[in-house]
């Protein structure tokens, strides 16, 4: 009789699930499972079931708090027509579809990229995401990416048809013998300088970059109020301008 009772008892003992058995033995859950369980996606105090995903050419940027004149990782934000902020891309949309060709025009940045972007009043959306301040902007407001997250003229990669122009300190003479006027008594920055870096060009209907009309090493003249001022603390002042804002080159 005893063997029969023992057999019946064993037949009703169900095995523990694998994860439960591991916990029973004191094993640690897989890191991926722990991270997934610990992540809470919160947008403006609302809980989300999944990460925030920008649509079209929108870019979600976690901005660093920077005030005018504040040194921010080697960059001095100067007063200009466009306020430039630095931050890191949290997420980016796939891009826009051209209305005529149907070609996807991909967004030029991705998650993890360190960027400088233009913050313009009444454009974009300021949001609180994952407990930190972010801004949702169209990719056209991304001025440049910073290679390795380092703030310098050498790591500055302009977006689209933008140029990084180094302004002369004082009266300088180029290799061709042309004198460039530096900062005058009025305190106004000169409207010419040497092109240090150029963007890949504007995307056309085929999703290809149009060739840039200027190249690094060339000198350009642009409108006095064109562009945004930058200072990388290397002793020079810079401006970021669009190629279309250049009036002449040599």
From TrEMBL:
The keyword Phosphoprotein does not apply. Residues 1-26 form the signal peptide. SMART domains: Cpn10. CDD domains: cpn10 (cd00320). Keywords: Chaperone, Signal. It comes from the Eukaryota. SUPFAM superfamilies: GroES-like (SSF50129). Pfam families: Cpn10 (PF00166). PANTHER family: 10 KDA HEAT SHOCK PROTEIN, CO-CHAPERONIN GROES. Belongs to the GroES chaperonin family. This is Chaperonin 10. It comes from Emiliania huxleyi (Coccolithophore).
């Amino acid at each position: 009789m005893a063997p029969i009772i023992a057999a019946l008892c064993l037949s009703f003992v169900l095995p523990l699930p694998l994860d439960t058995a591991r916990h029973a033995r004191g094993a640690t859950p897989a890191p991926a499972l722990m991270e997934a369980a610990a992540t809470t996606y919160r947008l403006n105090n609302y809980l989300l079931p999944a990460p925030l995903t920008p649509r079209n050419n929108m870019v979600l940027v976690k901005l660093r708090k920077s005030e005018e004149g504040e040194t921010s990782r080697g960059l001095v934000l100067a007063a200009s027509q466009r306020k430039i902020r630095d931050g890191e891309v949290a997420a980016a949309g796939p891009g826009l579809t051209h209305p005529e060709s149907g070609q996807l025009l991909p967004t030029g940045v991705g998650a993890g990229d360190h960027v400088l972007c233009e913050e313009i009043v009444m454009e974009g959306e300021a949001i609180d995401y994952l407990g930190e301040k972010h801004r949702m902007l169209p990719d056209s407001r991304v001025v440049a990416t910073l290679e390795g997250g380092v703030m310098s003229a050498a790591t500055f990669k302009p977006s689209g048809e933008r140029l990084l122009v180094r302004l002369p300190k004082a009266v300088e003479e180029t290799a061709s013998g042309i004198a460039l006027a530096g900062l005058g008594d009025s305190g106004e920055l000169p409207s010419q300088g040497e092109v240090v870096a150029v963007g890949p060009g504007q995307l056309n209907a085929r999703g290809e970059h149009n060739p840039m009309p200027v190249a690094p090493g060339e000198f350009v003249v642009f409108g006095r109020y064109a562009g945004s001022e930058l200072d990388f603390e290397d002793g020079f002042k810079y401006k970021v301008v669009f190629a279309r804002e250049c009036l002449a080159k040599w």
